[in-house]
Amino acid sequence: MSQEILHYPQPFLLECGKTLPQLQITYHTYGTYNPEKNNVIWVCHALTANADVFDWWKGLFGSGCLFNPDDYFIVCANILGSCYGTTGPLAENIATGAAYFQLFPDISIRDMVAAHEILRQHLGIFKIYSLIGGSLGGQQALEWSIQYPDLIENLLIVATNASHSPWGIAFNEAQRMAIRADETYNLNVPEGGRKGLKAARAVALLSYRTYHTYGRTQCETDLNKTDNFKASSYQNYQGDKLVNRFNAYSYVSLSKTMDSHNVGRNQPSIEQALQQIKAKTLVIGISSDLLFPPQEQQYLTEHIPGAVYHEIDSFYGHDGFLIETEKLTQLIETFLAVPITPQLKLDKMISQIVKEEFYFRGAFMSLFIDIEFLLGDTIATILTGDNELKLNLIEFVNPKLMLEPKLSLLHKILNQKYFDLYSKKYKDGINELRKFTDLRNSFAHKRISIDNGNKKLNFIVMDNGKLIDNSFTFENLETKFTELKALLTLVNTLHDEIVKSQTDKA
Ligand SMILES: CC(=O)SCCNC(=O)CCNC(=O)[C@H](O)C(C)(C)COP(=O)(O)OP(=O)(O)OC[C@H]1O[C@@H](n2cnc3c(N)ncnc32)[C@H](O)[C@@H]1OP(=O)(O)O
Ligand SMILES: N[C@@H](CCO)C(=O)O
C-alpha cells in the first residue's frame, strides 16, 4: 500500500464557475499494474470515508479478498472537499492566507470526478476494469461513467441514485441546520461547529440504520428505566466519533454535493444521461435502505443499458453497503465472471460473441435475467454452425432495448407455443418479476456443462432442486432445440410455482 499526494499546481475550474487556484489530491494505491494494464479497480468513497479503502471496506478489499493487491491495481482518492488530505474547506485560501472554512466554493459530484480524472491521467490509467462506489461514491461513479463512457469496463454501484431525492436533501438540510445552529461554526476555525457536527451525525445515523437495527442493538432490558437509554448513549457516541475524525466545514460542503447530484443536469434528461453509460453495469440495492431506497437503484437499472440489478437482503439499512461485504463479494464476483461486453448490452441484437461461462444465483428476478443470459448464449451457440446468425437475448429483459425485433427473431427460432409463453412473460412481466425479491438467496447454484462437439459451454444454473439437476449433452441442433424448450418449460413452471406460493402467502 502506498499513500501519495498529487499536487496539481494549475487553476481548477469548478462547475459553479469559481476556480480553485491549485489542487491537492491524496490517494492510496494497492498492488501493481499487470502487463496489459487492464487490472485497475478504482474506488469512489462515500461521505466521511477516506482513501484507505483497505481500512473501511474490509472484507471486500484486502489481501485474500475479492479485490486484493495480488490481482489488481487498486486506486482510491480522497474526494474533493473532504478532510483526509485532498483540497477542502480547511485548505489555504491563497486570497486570504487563511483556510477557506465557509468561503470554500460550492463543489459538485462532477468536480469530484474532474479531480479523479486529473489523478487518473497522472497515473497513466487508460482503462478502468472496475469502477466501484456506494452512496455518494456511487454518485461519482455514475457521473464518471456518463462523462467517460469508454473508460470504464465494469461499473459497480451500490445504494446510490441518479439524482438526490427530496427526502435525502431534507435529511442533509436538517444536519446542516444543526451545524449552523452551533455558533462556533461561524468562528471559522478548524474546531468550529463541533457540537453541531455531532448532532448532524446523530441525525444522519437515523438514515443509515433502521428501526430494527436500533431495536436489536440498543434494546433495554431494565423495565424500570426512565432515562439514560442505550439509544441515547449510542447517538452521542456516534456523534463524538465523527467529530474526532472530521470537521463541520467539509461535512457541509460534501452534503451539498449530494443534494445537487443530478446526472440530468444540463443533459436532455436523466434517462438520456444514463443511457450514455457503456460500462457493463451491476446495480445493487439494500433492501432496508431508507436513504437510498431500492426503487432508486431499480430506476438506474431500467435506464442504464443492459444493467443488472441485485438486492441485498440486509438488516443494516443504508450502511449495509459498507457492512455486507460477503454478499457484495458474491454478487460482484459472479457479475465480473460473466464476460459480456458493453457493446453487446447496448445495441447489438446480433451478437458476435459466444461466451464460455455463466453464473447464476441471487434473486428471483435475477434468475430470470440470468436465464436470459443462458438462453441468449445457448441460442447464439446453436446458431453458430451452418447458420452464421448469432442471437443474444441479454437485452431481452429490458423492454426499452429493441424488444420487438428480438421477439420477432425469437419467434422464428421457437415454435408458437413457447414463443407465446415467453414473450408474454417478458412483455408484461418485468415489473411483476421484481416483486419477488424476497425469494432472493433462496436458490443455490449448480454447474452445468454443455458440449456439442464443437464447443463446450459451462454454466452454473440456478437450482432449487426443481429447475435443472442434470447435465445436457447436445448431439445436434434438433436436440438442442428440444432441450432449450424443455428449459423454457422448467423456467415457466418455476415461475408459476413461485407466483402461486406468493399468492398463497398473500
Ligand atoms: C480515519 C478513519 O477513521 S477512517 C473512516 C472510517 N469510517 C468510514 O470510512 C465511513 C464508513 N464506515 C462507517 O460508516 C461505519 O464504520 C460502519 C457503518 C461500517 C460501521 O459503523 P459502526 O459505528 O462501526 O457500527 P455500529 O453502528 O454498530 O456502532 C458500533 C460502535 O458503537 C458503540 N456503541 C454501540 N452501542 C452503544 C451505546 N449504547 N452507547 C455507546 N456506544 C455504543 C460500539 O461500542 C462501537 O464502538 P466502536 O466504533 O468504537 O467500536
Ligand atoms: N456511513 C457512511 C454513510 C454515507 O453514505 C459514511 O459516513 O460515509
TrEMBL record:
Pfam families (UniProt xref): Abhydrolase_1
Q: Which GO terms describe its molecular function?
A: homoserine O-acetyltransferase activity
Q: In which pathway does it act?
A: Amino-acid biosynthesis; L-methionine biosynthesis via de novo pathway; O-acetyl-L-homoserine from L-homoserine: step 1/1
Q: Name one GO cellular component term.
A: cytoplasm
Active site (UniProt)? 135, 289, 318
**Residue spans crossing the bilayer:** none
Q: For this UniProt entry, which residues form the secretion signal? A: none
- Broad class of the protein's primary localization: cytoplasm
* Enzyme Commission number(s) of this protein: 2.3.1.31
UniProt GO BP? homoserine metabolic process; methionine biosynthetic process
Q: Which InterPro entries match?
A: AB_hydrolase_1, AB_hydrolase_fold, HAT_MetX-like
Subcellular location per UniProt equals: Cytoplasm
Keyword list (alphabetical) reads: Acyltransferase, Amino-acid biosynthesis, Cytoplasm, Methionine biosynthesis, Transferase
Membership in a protein family: Belongs to the AB hydrolase superfamily. MetX family.
Give the protein's recorded name: Homoserine O-acetyltransferase
What is the source species?
Adhaeribacter pallidiroseus
